[in-house]
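Recap from last week: sequence in, structure out.
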Amino acid sequence: MVDTFLLQMLSKRRNVVMSLIGAAFCAAMYEFIGIKILGTFGILYVAFHLSDLMTKFIYNSLPRRLIDNTNDKAVVITGCDSGFGNALAIKLDGIGFKVYAGCLDVRGEGVQELKAKCSSRLHLIPLDVTKSDQVSAATHLVASTLEDRKLWAVVNNAGVACSSEIEWCPIDIFEKMLEVNTLGTVRVTKAFLPLLRESQGRVVCVASMAGRVTVPGFTPYSMSKFAVVAFADGLRREMQKWGISVHCIEPSLYKTNISVLEPLYNSLKNYWEQCSDDVQSSYGKEYFEHFKESLGDHMKRAKPEGKIIEVVDDMVDAVAGTEPLLRYVPAMDVQFRSRLLISMPTEMQDHVLNQYSPKIPPAAVVAKRNILPPLKSPYGGQKRPPLQRHMSMPMREKNLPETLQEQEENAEPATAFKFS
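Predicted structure tokens:
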């Protein structure tokens, strides 16, 4: 009975209780961490981060409550051919939602799995998020088949990835990343907002940790995901007046179709072959092969397929939870690493993230030159005088002349020069 009471109390006052528990934990660690190691300022910094991590740890440990009456609600999900979208469609169908699963290929293997595992409530929609006519057709289909249901949520999950150094990557690949990952999210969201206003529902955007941190070799992908995070932030603030909530999912790397090595290798080879002779000779074949090897090592760090449930559970909570978060970073270890990395100075971030780059210099770099570590100054020799920087002082209106005439009257007379 006591356990039941505590669970109810935690559910009703979850955020407050978790913050208090986190603060109590930090207070207990005060003497050991704060005074003996870091001092007064350090304890404030550590207390803030530890209390936040403890809050999230406790939150993840508690059972998540779902909204009632899911049978009268519908959800649109893009990118259901495989991965997160496919698993989410199955999960939401199982708890009673009418699911509209947008798929790039309605005859694909993933679609057959959806048909086998989902109920008759499932609607398959051919949906390429880069094509406005397909998005418009999907909107009309959903609006005409909702019946007595309301559109409760739109999940922007469709996405593509690539890996290449910026100088090798064709412009059309940059455009593709932005067109699918960013503009696809914008296009689908804008199309369904009228229906979401009626239900005061939710928008869920699947971004990535790459939308917070840019790893060398993944710049085009990171650009598109940074833009998704910015879109979600802006949309959330603009939709508050309509009662629509916006939630962002930011997973790390998992073993999904987006991380399969063979397509990434094939694309990388294609980009390299399109490079000019000057670019290829400057980098060299050996550097290219080392980049390819680094890519393989990076993808081997992807979390196994069985861990996808970490992301799907957060997506379910964003769609159907009674107290959804605004931002989800699945897995506690990823939350800790990302917080630590983002809090570092930029120079230190560069040093850490450049560990993913090839360990050898490009061919055109002079062999005798020692490449300086990123944290050391590239300038050698005699010390130079520091650059003088002038602070601009704020000017208040009362100190400013009101008219041009006053400016002329207050101006000092010009000094006359005589030339002999």
